[in-house]
Give the backbone structure.
Amino acid sequence: MRITLIGSGNVATHLAAAFKNAGHYIVQVYSRSLQNAALLAYHVKAEPIDDLQNINPETDLFIIAVKDTAIGVIAEQLAQYQQLKVHTSGAVSLYTLLAFSDNVGVFYPLQTFSKTKEVDLRNVPICIEGANESITKNLEQLARTISNKVYRIDSDKRKIVHLAAVFANNFPNYLYTVAQQILAKSQLDFELIRPIIQETAQKVQQGLPAAMQTGPAIRNDETTINNHLQLLKDEPALQELYRLLSQGIIKLDNTGQGDK
Amino acid sequence: MRITLIGSGNVATHLAAAFKNAGHYIVQVYSRSLQNAALLAYHVKAEPIDDLQNINPETDLFIIAVKDTAIGVIAEQLAQYQQLKVHTSGAVSLYTLLAFSDNVGVFYPLQTFSKTKEVDLRNVPICIEGANESITKNLEQLARTISNKVYRIDSDKRKIVHLAAVFANNFPNYLYTVAQQILAKSQLDFELIRPIIQETAQKVQQGLPAAMQTGPAIRNDETTINNHLQLLKDEPALQELYRLLSQGIIKLDNTGQGDK
């Protein structure tokens, strides 16, 4: 397939590389910054452009991988092209594209990407939505060339998936930062807790997390909870967070006792 | 070393297996339930007992791996034995043992254990504290027979480490449950977000989590945040949690923009 990438951020970068590796042809990479476009384009042997006037119409698919608020603007600017267009956002409805064309869909890779770390897309769930069944099938086929985990998810459900991902990814990462800052304040190394972070994520790769819950809250260990709140006495926001999370854990419909 | 294990829970089970594998001799395993004692004792070729009257004094070390509130009680019951005694708790001070003997220490493996999942102790940080330098050195040496990551951590700092571990392990695991429940309510499979959970934990194995923060809050994306709060309108506790965590992320001293 001939693919044009609109955007040069993390999602665009990882998708472009995966498509290129899967044997697709990346026609152009667009970014408002020609330098950013060129950086990605160079890696996937595409032409970099910084002006949508210079779009090469000899393409089969536009992947709009820009920030959420820019998706509609870009879709409008590409309205003259009849080719399939998809966006890659978890939070944006298909309707944002449907306003300008019928030949549209969503191609949402459910992963956290950074430019500095390679991710094997084979194991990354791709959530697909098409404006009609034929588009959906096309996108499914395309997604399967780079991933083994392709899901049909409509716009309403994709928003739920995105919300769940915030709880499963963005918020745990913030709690890692809280832990790191607590350690740093006592001149303790983050290295101490890296293994437990990894193991916690590892444990839920098979079972469900509710069955794996450990710690003072699931044991209703008030002494430890109060000691921890006391240690946080200079950090009211963290105290409140600790309380709220502990209350949530205590309320878990827990039959057995958690592992220690 | 000849080692006696007081307790047959997750920590006792994993330590016993690791010490046995490292060539130590497990003398006895005590549990209030003879069945539980026998289950673990069988695996490490030790004698199971359910009565502290039957302690075999031919041992070098008592490892008290029982729940926090029972540590003092056990220490008192073992007061007649002069051998080194350690507890394995992150939250309990060394003083709880010092009340009954001078020959005491702490041997705190910083990991989340379940009986159903093997953990390679080689990569598990062991936090060591001794009542004096000679005990500390002994415990360090012992810890190094099962782990490559041995740290000297005194009681005050161990409490900080334990608090950090609650933020880095117990609370993220709870957030995984929240995510799972959000998905389940819309008949969506937890499998969808397992990869992002693993990748999030994987990313902080090198760098620091603050540099890896992604999501609507770090982008100050109020539209998405408000949409998410709206999706949670029937769950006031989760709304509050979402708000608090997002506020924490927004406040992060963030110079660059997060990865998407």
Q: What stands out?
A: Chain A touches chain B through 97 residues (CB under 8 Å). The first helix of chain A runs from residue 10 to 21. Chain A has a mean pLDDT of 94.
